[in-house]
Amino acid sequence: MQRSTPKLQQERTYTTNAGRVEVGVGLPYDCKPGPHPDCPGSLRMSSVGDGAGGDGGSTASQGKTPVVKAFRGLEGVGSGWTKASCPCCVAERVEPLVLLQLGEQVQPETKKWLIRLIGASVKEGGAALLSHPGEEDDGDILVISAPRCTLLLAAEELGLSKAYHNGDIAAFSYQDRGNFRDSDDMQKFMTLAERQYVVKYELDGLRAQRDLRVPGFSDGFTLHRRDNIWQKLREAGVIVDMFPLNNEDKLKALTKAWYLGNQLAQPLDMIHEYFGGTFAFYFSFLDFYTWSLLPPAVLGLILSYFSGAVQKEALDSISGSKVTVADEDADSPSVSGHVIQAVFSMLWSTVVMEMWKRRSTSLSYRWGTLHLAERFAEPRPGYHGDMGVNPVTGRVEPLFPDWQRQLRMALVSLPVVGLFLGLVVLGMLGFYWGEAQAQLLHRDWDSLLSTVLLYAPSVLHIVYTNVLGTVYRHVALSLTEFENHREESAYDNHLTGKVLVFTFFNYFAVLFHIAFYKQDVPLLRKRLASLLVVTQLVNQVTEVVVPFLVDRFLSAPNRTKRDDDPQEDKFRNQGSLPAFPGLFAEYIELLVQFGYLSLFSCVYPLAAVLLLINNLTEIRSDAFRICQLFRKPFSAPVAGMGVWQTAFEVLSFVSVISNCWLLLLSPRLRELCQEGGLSTRNILVLAILMEHVLILIKMALAFLIPDEPDWIRIKRERIEFKSMQALGQVSEL
Amino acid sequence: MQRSTPKLQQERTYTTNAGRVEVGVGLPYDCKPGPHPDCPGSLRMSSVGDGAGGDGGSTASQGKTPVVKAFRGLEGVGSGWTKASCPCCVAERVEPLVLLQLGEQVQPETKKWLIRLIGASVKEGGAALLSHPGEEDDGDILVISAPRCTLLLAAEELGLSKAYHNGDIAAFSYQDRGNFRDSDDMQKFMTLAERQYVVKYELDGLRAQRDLRVPGFSDGFTLHRRDNIWQKLREAGVIVDMFPLNNEDKLKALTKAWYLGNQLAQPLDMIHEYFGGTFAFYFSFLDFYTWSLLPPAVLGLILSYFSGAVQKEALDSISGSKVTVADEDADSPSVSGHVIQAVFSMLWSTVVMEMWKRRSTSLSYRWGTLHLAERFAEPRPGYHGDMGVNPVTGRVEPLFPDWQRQLRMALVSLPVVGLFLGLVVLGMLGFYWGEAQAQLLHRDWDSLLSTVLLYAPSVLHIVYTNVLGTVYRHVALSLTEFENHREESAYDNHLTGKVLVFTFFNYFAVLFHIAFYKQDVPLLRKRLASLLVVTQLVNQVTEVVVPFLVDRFLSAPNRTKRDDDPQEDKFRNQGSLPAFPGLFAEYIELLVQFGYLSLFSCVYPLAAVLLLINNLTEIRSDAFRICQLFRKPFSAPVAGMGVWQTAFEVLSFVSVISNCWLLLLSPRLRELCQEGGLSTRNILVLAILMEHVLILIKMALAFLIPDEPDWIRIKRERIEFKSMQALGQVSEL
After folding, report:
1. Which of A403, A684, A727 sits opposite B722 (nearest CB)?
2. Number of inter-chain CB pairs under 8 A, A vs B
C-alpha cells in the first residue's frame, strides 16, 4: 500500500574524479535559488531562431575558442565533467543522466566538437548540458547531465507544474522559481525521468545556427542552417545510441515496493519518478482496470452458478469438446442471465471509462502534467515547413498550415488505412473461400496432395496477414510522417491510432465474421474461450519467459556484473540490454481483452474472471520486464493515455451494437418472443429501440459523470481566474 | 449590405435643465482616461461582501448624510442628474439609459432614499449609478444612467472583450483601460445595449450591507443583511417596472438599414449595438439558416420537377383532396429521389450546424463576448446557499455545491419532466381512444347528442393540452429555480431547455405517432403539408398583424406622439408598449421548421422551398415587431445561442433515425427490395446498417469541421499563451 512519494533523502549521485566515475553521496546543487542575471539560459525565452547569436561553440574549425577553454581548463571543479556555462549552475556533484554511444569510427576531434556543442549555451546554439567523456577522452561513450538552469528552463518550456510554496501545484515559471518548493534541489524538484527527458529534449532540439562543417570528417559532412543536428549526426553514424542511465539504488527500492513483496497496490508515484509519465499512466490504468474487473467477474460467477449449465458449457468449450445440440438446450435457463450480463457490461464499460478519466486527471494533476505547454514549445524535430513567425508565440519556426494537414489526413491517410482494412477483410474472405475450395477438392479427389492442400489456405493466410502487418507498419509510419504533426504527442497519437485500428481489426475480424455474418453463437463462444486462455498464456510466455531466458543464457555471460567494476563499465553494460519495445503491445493486449469482455460478454460470462486472474499476474510480469529485462526507456511528460483513452471509449460504444445483436441471435430469446406473439420484424425493431436507448443512457452517463473531480475543477478555474487577472495586470507582453 | 459598425459620430444624448429633459448634441465624457486613485469604483474588485464598508448611503434614517449633500447640492453640473460619486466620471452630458417606474403609492422620502442608494458608491452598498427624478421630484419615474467608471468596471467584471489599441480584441481590464480604444468615450466603447444592461446588472445585484429600514413605509418593511434589495423592492411594489429607453435616432437608422429598404443582408452589427447579443445572435442565425435553405430548396424543386407526380401529389395534399390509391402509384418514380433527398438532408443538417458554429464563434469574437467571465462574476440574484469564500475567486458569496444541484436535476427535474412528457403521450392516446369511442357511439346511436359528442374528444384534448402547457411552464420555472444555478446563463439555458423539450414534444408527438406507430406515410405527408402552410400563416398573423392592430387601434389613441412633447412624456409613452415576450417563440418556430425539414424531409421534398419563402418574410416581420410593436428589451451579453444550438444539433442526429425509418416504410422501396430477393429481416438489417453508417459520417463531419475558424483559434491560443506568461510574471496574486 506504498503509494506516497518516495522520500529518498540521501540521493546517491555520481561524481567523477580524474576521469573515473565513482559513486558518492550527492549534495544538492550549491547555487543560489535567486535569479542570476548572467545566466545565459534566461535568454532562451527570447526568439532563439534568429541566427544572430554570437560567435558560438558550433564554429569548431576555429580551434580554441573561449568556450573550449572554459570547460577544458577547469577540470578540478567538475572532476571530468564539463563546467556549466552559467555560474549559478556550478555544482559539486554531477548526476550522470544519459549515456551517448558514439560510432566506433568517430574521431577524437569529432567527440571534442560534440562535447563543446553539448556544453555551449543555448544562445550560442548549444544544448547547455554537461558531459563527461568517460574513462578515456577518445572513448566511444559520452555521459551527459543537465545543470540546474537548463532543467528549470526546460521545465517551464514543457509546461510542467510543480508544488508552489503554498502547497498548490502551479505551472512552473523560471522567473518565479524562488516561490516553488525545492527549486534549488533538482533531485527533489524534478523526477529522474523528467531530468533524463530534458537531456533528450535539448539534444533532439539542437539546430544549426549556420552552415558548419563537423570536424573529423572528410569534407563530405556539413550541417546546413536550421538543420536538426541530432538527426544528421544519427544519420552519419556519429551517434549510435542514446539511453537514460539506471539509478541502481532507486531501482532496487522500486522493485521492492513493486513486485517483490505481496503488495496489492502499485507504487505509482515511484514508477512516475523513475520511469516517467507514459509508464506511470500505463500501470495506473492496468491497476484501475484490473480492479474494475471485479464487479463483472462476481456477476459472471453468480450467473454461472445459478445456471450451472453455462459453467459446464464453458468447460466444454475450453476443453474443446464438440458443442452438440445439447448446448442449444443448455442455453435456455440463462436467457435472463444473458440480458443481465449484456446490459450490465454495457453500462459498466462506460462507468469504468468515465471513472478512469477522473482518476487520470487526478494523477495528471498530482504529477504536474495537467497543463503541458507542448503547443507553445518548439515543434518536434521532424516537423518541417516554411520558416515564419508563429502567430501565437511570436517565435521563428517552421510553419505548416493545419488545413493542409487535415487535407492530407482526409485524402491520403484515411483512404490508405481504409484500403488496408479492406485487405484484411479480403484476406479473411479469401481464406474462407480457399478453405471451402480445398475441402471440396479433397472430397472429390482425396489424395495425399489434396490433404496437403487442405493446409494451404491457413498457411497462406498466416503469411498474408504477417506480410500485410509489416507493410502496414511502414506505411503507417510514412503516413504519419507525411501528415507532419507539430507536436510529438500528436505524432505519437496518430501513429498509434493507425496501427491500433489495424491491429484491432486483425484480431476481431474473424470474431465479427462469426458473430455477424455466420451468426453462429456456439462457435463464437468456443473461439472466445480458447482465445482468452491461449492468447493470454502465449502473451505471458513471449513477453516474459523468452526475454528472461535470452537475457540469462545469451546476453548475461557477456555481461559479468561485479560490484568493483568501474562505473563506466556498469553504464556500458546497461547498453547491452535490448531496448524497450514500447507500450503498444501492452496496451493493445488490454484493449483486446476489453474488447472480448465488452463486445461479446453476454456470450461468455466467465471472461471477466479469467481476465482478472490474468491481469493480476500481468502487473507483476510487466513490472519485472521493464525493471530487469530491458534498457531504461525515455519517457516524455504526458497528461494521460492519449489515443488509448479514445480507443477504449469507442470500443465501449461499439459494444452496445454488438451485444444487442448477439442477444437477438440467442435462439431461446427469439423463441420466447415468438411465444409472446412478436413477429421477427417486431423483435428486430425492439432490439433497435433497446440499442438506441442504451446508447442514449451511455451518452447521458458519460455526460453526467464529470471528467475531472470537483477539487481539480476548482483548482483549474482558480488558475484560469488568476491568469485572467494577470493578463490584465501585465499589459503589452 | 450595410454590415459595418454604425459610425454615428455625433451621438445625441440627453441633458436635463431645471428638471426638464431636453435633447442636445452629446459630448464625450470629459474625464481623463488615466487611472484615478480616488475613484471608489476601483475598490470594487476587493471583497465586497464584508459588511464593514463605511457608513454608507444606505443608512437612510440618519437624514442628511454627506452623500446626500454631495448630489443634491450640485444641481448645476448634472442639471438634475445626481453627481457621479467619483470625480473622474463627472460628465457634461448624461445619457438616459433606463427608466424606472415606481409604484403610485411610493412616498417622496422613499424615492429620495432610492436615489441615494442608486448613487452611492459600491463600497457603501450602492450601485454607483446616476439618476434623474424626472419632471417632479415626487413623480413616479426615475431615469437612470451610468458613469464611466461603473461601466468600465462592469465591462471587466462581465468579461467583455474590446478593441485593444493594436486592433486585437482583448478581454477588457480596468487597470489597463488606457490601452483600449475609445475607452474614454463610452458611447463608442460600449454598445447601447451593453450600457443599459450594466444598469440592470448593477441594480439587480444590489445587496443590503446590513439590516435597514426603507423610509416612507410603516415599520413593516425592512431589508435584512445580504437581502437582494431589488427583489425585495419589486415584491413590495416600490419598483413596478424597469425598461431600457429607446434612442430614437439610432432606432430610425436601424429600421432603415434593416427592413425598410430592399437589403438582402441584415445590419447585424447595428442590431448588436442597439438590441444586444441575444437578439443579434437570433437574427444572425435566422439569416444564416434562411440562406442555408437554398440547397435543399433547389434539390427539392429539381426532384419534384423530375418526378412530376410528387408535385401533383403535394398540390393534392395542400388542397386537402383525398389521397387515393393513385398516390401509392405516384410514389413509384421517386424512390431514388426519396433516398437522395433523405441522405442529402441528413448530411446537410450537420454541415449547416457546424458552419453555423464557426459563424457564431466569429460573431462572438467580433462582438467581444467570446471570453465572458460569468463564472467569476457575482452569482445571479436568485442564487442562494450558505455564505462562504468562493474557492476560485476568493470572494465571499453564497455557495451551493455542484453535486447537490446535479442530484436535484437527476432526481427531481428529470423525473418531473419525464412525467409531463408522459402526460402529453397519454393525452394523445386518450384523444385517439376517445375519438374511436365517439365514432362507435355515433354509429350505434346516431342522434344529435352523439353528433355533438363527436367533437368532445378534440375539444377536451385542446383544453387538456393548454392546461398542461400552462402548468408545465410554472413547474419548469420552479424546477429551474430549485436547481439553484449560479449563473444567469445556466439558469436561462436550463429553463429554456425544459420548456423547449416539452413544446417540441407537443408539436411532434402526433407526427411521430403517425410515422412510427400508424406507419401511414400518405397521412404524414398530408399533415406535414398542411402544418407547414397553416402554422406559418397563423404565426405570421398572430406575431405581427395582431400586435400591430392592437397597437394602432387600442393603445395608440392613449399615446399621442408629438415632437414638442416633453422628453419625459416620450419616455413614459415607451412604457405603455407591451413588454417583449422574449425569443422563445421565435426560436421554437425555427426549431419546429428545422424539425419538419430534417425529420420528415424525404416525405415532402418541397418543404425547404416553403420554409425559404416563409423565412424571408419572417426576418422582416420579426424586425418590425421588435423595433415598433414592443418596448425595448434588456439583453445580456451572450456568446451564442445557448441551449438552442444543442437543440438543433440533437434534432439533426434524431433526423437520421427518423429518415431511415421513413425510407423503410416507403412501399415501393420494400417492393424493390423484395424483387431483389431480400427478406423483410434483411431489409431491416440493411436499414440499421445504413443508419449507423450515416450517424458515423455525421459524427465524423462534426468532428472534422473545426468549431472555430483558424484565425480565431490563433487569436485564442495567443491569449492563452500570454496568460500563461503573465501568470508566471505576476506571482502571488
Report:
1. A727
2. 106
Q: Which residues pair with B643 in a beta bridge?
A: none
pLDDT > 50? residue A323: no
Distance in Å from the first CA to the final CA of chain B: 48
Q: Which residue of A has its CA nearest to B661?
A: A685
- Indicate yes or no: CB of B730 within 8 angstroms of CB of A732: no
What residues of A are in contact with residue B388 (Cβ under 8 Å)? none
Cα–chain-centroid distance for residue B404?
Answer: 27
In a mutational test of the B interface, the residue from A658, A703, A723 whose CB has the highest number of chain B CBs within 10 Å is A723
DSSP-derived secondary structure letter, A258:
I
DSSP string, B584-623: HHHHHHHHHHHHHHHHSGGG-TTHHHHHHHHHHHHHHHHH
- In this structure, how many other beta carbons lie within 10 angstroms of the beta carbon of residue A36? 17
CA distance A553 to A551: 6
What are A509's three cell numbers?
475480424
Quick one: pLDDT at residue A546? Answer: 77
Please provide the size of chain B in residues: 733
| End-to-end CA gap in chain A | 48
Which residues does A contribute to its contact with B (CB < 8 Å)? 156, 159, 171, 173-176, 179, 373, 375-376, 391-393, 401-403, 406, 410, 657, 680-681, 684-685, 688, 692, 704, 710, 714, 717-719, 721-733
Calpha distance A528→A506 (Å, rounded): 15
| Mean pLDDT value across residues B569-589 | 84
Torsion sign, CA atoms A84, A88, A92, A94: negative
Percent of the residues in chain A that have a pLDDT greater than 90, as a whole number: 21
Q: Is the pLDDT of residue B39 over 90?
A: no
d(CA B434, CA B456): 8
Q: Is the pLDDT of residue B395 over 50?
A: yes
Mean pLDDT for chain B? 79
At residue A264, the pLDDT reads 76
- Average pLDDT score over residue span A627-637: 89
Return the higher-pLDDT residue of B97 and A33. Answer: B97
Beta strands in B554-625 (DSSP E): none
Question: For residue B53, what pLDDT band results from cuts at 50, 70 and 90?
Answer: very low
Q: Do A692 and B657 touch (CB under 8 A)?
A: yes
Mean pLDDT within A648-661? 88
Residues B726, A727: C-beta atoms closer than 8 Å:
yes
What is the structure's pLDDT at A558?
Answer: 59
Cβ A727–B728 below 8 Å, yes or no? no
* B181's grid cell: 480604444
Alpha carbon distance A504, A596 (integer Å)? 11
* C-beta of residue B691 within 8 angstroms of C-beta of residue B657: yes
Q: Can you give the pTM of this predicted structure?
A: 0.81
CA distances from B655 to A580, B520, B599, B641, B648 (A): 50, 18, 4, 21, 10
* Grid cell for residue B656: 437520421
CB-nearest to B728 from A176, A688, A721 is: A176
Question: ∠ CA A384-A390-A393 to the nearest 5 degrees?
Answer: 130
Higher pLDDT, A573 or B411: B411
- The conformation of residue B74, written as its DSSP 8-state character, comes to -
Please state the separation of Cα B423 from the chain's center in Å: 28
Helix (H) or strand (E) holding B163: strand B161-163
pLDDT at position A98: 92
B272 contacts B598 by C-beta, under 8 angstroms: no
Sign (positive or negative) of CA dihedral B481, B482, B484, B485: negative
What DSSP state is assigned to residue A223?
A: E
Contact at 8 Å (CB) between A704 and B408?
A: no
CA distance A176 to chain B (A): 6
Name the residue among B402, B406, B726 with its Cβ closest to that of A723. Answer: B726
Q: Which residues of A304-323 are buried (b: 16+ CB within 10 A; e: fewer)?
A: beebebbbebbebbbeeeeb
